[in-house]
Specification:
Blueprint lengths: L1 H27 L4 H5 L5 H11 L6 H13 L13 H36 L4 H15 L2 H16 L14 H7 L1 H26 L3 H8 L4 H13 L2
Length: 236
Amino acid sequence: MRFVRKKLIQLVVVLLCVTFLSFLLISLLPGDPATKLCAGAGGQECVDQKRAELHLDDPLPVRYVRWLGDAATGDLGASARNQQPVWEALKQRVPVTIELLLYSQFMALVIAVPLGLLAAQRAGGILDRVSTTVLFGLLAVPSFMLALLLIYIFPVKLGWFQATGYTKFTDNPLESLGSLFLPAVSLAAAEMAVYMRLLRTDMIATLQEDYITMAKAKGMPPRRVLLRHAFKPSSF
C-alpha cells in the first residue's frame, strides 16, 4: 500500500505539472484565441463575447485552477471547431484508438518476437544484420511519413485496402481490421525495431548463462532450449 500510495502521489504531481505546462504553452502562443474563434463573423462583439466566455481576461493561474476544477468534475468543455462536447468526442474516438493500439501492438509482437529469437540464436549472421538494418530504417521514419507512403503505394497505386473510412469491429470484424491495417502498420513499424532489439540483446546474454550450457549438455533439442529455457526469462 505504501508503494501504491507513493506512485499515486507521483502520478498526481506529474499530471499537474504536465497540464500546467501545456496550459502555459498554449497561453504563450501568439494571437488571440477569441479573435481566431470569431474569424470572419461577429466582429468585435463576437470577440468580446468569446473572451468573456473563456475568461481570457483573468490571470493565468486563475484560469488554470478554474479549468482544473472543471476537468476534475468531468466538465471538459466543447470543441472550438464544431462545438461538440469533448466527452462525446472521446466516446466516439477512444474505442477506435484502443482497437488500433491493440492491433498495432499485436502486429509488432508477432513479427518482432520470432525475429528476435532467430537473430539471437545466430547473432552476427545474415538474418541478424539484415533484420537490424531494415527495422532500424523503419524506426528512423516518422509514423506520419510512413503512413503517407503506405497510402500512396497501396490504396493509390495498387488499389489495396482503403485510404479513408472506418468499419466498426462489431459490424464486420474483417472489414474493421482491413480498414485499420495501414494505420496499424504505420504505428507497429517503430515498435518492431524496439521489441526485436530488446529481446535479441537479452536473449544473447541469457544464452551465455550456465543453466543454458547445462541444458545443452543434457542433450535437449536446440528449439526447446531456446523457447523454454532462454525465451521465458528474456520475455520479461
